[in-house]
Amino acid sequence: MNSNIKNVETAILAVLLLSTFALQAAERKWTDQAAGIQLQELRKERTKLNIETIIAIGRDGPEAELLQNEVFAALSDTGPSDLADNYAKEILDSSSASLMLAYGALGYLLNSPQPWMTSYASRYIQVGKPQRLRAVACSLAARLGVPNTRDVALDVLSDQASGDWRVMALYCLAETMAPEALRDAVTGKGMPEFDVYNSMSYAGFRLADRSAKEEVFNSWLTSNLPILVQQGLFEMIKQNRTDLVKAAGMLLPGENLPNEEAKLSDKWRLRFRRAGFIVLNKTSVMEFKAIGISEY
Questions:
Q1: Neighbours of 250 (CB within 10 A)
Q2: Mean pLDDT of the region 257-273
Q3: Cβ atoms of 278 and 272 closer than 8 Å
């Protein structure tokens, strides 16, 4: 008799669990596969609807960690916006957001550091936060001038179990240290020599004069490392080297109409947008124009 009761209870529990899972699945608008396909399309154009849909996918509860991170990667490709800023704040203020959504949110902020981000950078470098988050927050904090980021970076690098994202801690050090000092500080930390060399290059670049920087950032524009390409692009914009748009082969073949956005290859159009700029084709020259966060 007891055995029959237990069997019935087990069957009822199984039905309840299946019903719960089915209900959860039904509540999601996108499967992970459908969401991934959507993100690849939505990131191509900066429209309010596209940005709102990307955010909706994030709130829909993607299960795969890679997809969670991809939500903010897609937002980054649409450029800085008030909608994406507010969503990043929502995630970073939440006590229940997934690790990878928080990681993606900090990465989104790192594309275009602004003073209001200082409180988030300071919060996420604290002891007790996951090392993955401390690594990217440390890099953001260093760019914003938050003190004591060097100690945070070295702590992250000392934890060799924390993973490949430790490279962000290297670039945190590169914001505040000379190349040789950086190399000495990370000796024995288990970082690949390739990553150490590139972070030293960035540290040297940061300290160089304008003419020396020009030689370096030209080569970085053709690098396979996104972080160096990004820094090269920032310096290109800072020096207003609009001539490199043509010289570096960023334009698509064909006519560019005056006073309209230049026809860049998809790769470069997204890179400029990530940095918060578009390229305008003026009558006789190109112009770098900052994207307004409320412009779509």
A1: 22
A2: 91
A3: yes
Would you give the DSSP letter of residue 63?
A: -
Please report the pLDDT score of residue 26 as a whole number: 52
pLDDT of residue 181: 97
- Residue 98 exposure: Cα atoms within 13 Å on the Cβ side: 18
Q: Label residues 140-173 b or e (16+ Cβ within 10 Å = b).
A: bbbbbebeebbebbbbbbeeeebeebbbbbbbbb
Give the sign of the dihedral formed by CA 196, CA 201, CA 202, CA 204. Answer: positive
Specify whether the CB–CB gap between 119 and 146 falls below 8 A: no
Average per-residue pLDDT for the chain? 90
The mean pLDDT of 202-225, rounded to a whole number, is 88
Residue 225 is predicted with a pLDDT of 87
Which stretches of 187-225 are DSSP H helices?
193-207, 210-220
Threshold 0.85, pTM exceeds: yes
Angle between helices 99-111 and 65-77 (to 10 degrees): 20
Q: Across-strand partners of 261?
A: 280
State pLDDT tens for residues 101-159.
999 999 999 999 999 999 999 999 999 999 999 999 999 999 999 999 999 999 999 98
Sign of the alpha-carbon dihedral angle for 227, 230, 232, 238: negative
Secondary structure class of 281 (helix, strand, coil) = strand
Q: Cβ atoms within 10 A of the Cβ of 130, count?
A: 12
- Strands across the sheet containing 260-261: 260-261, 277-281, 286-290
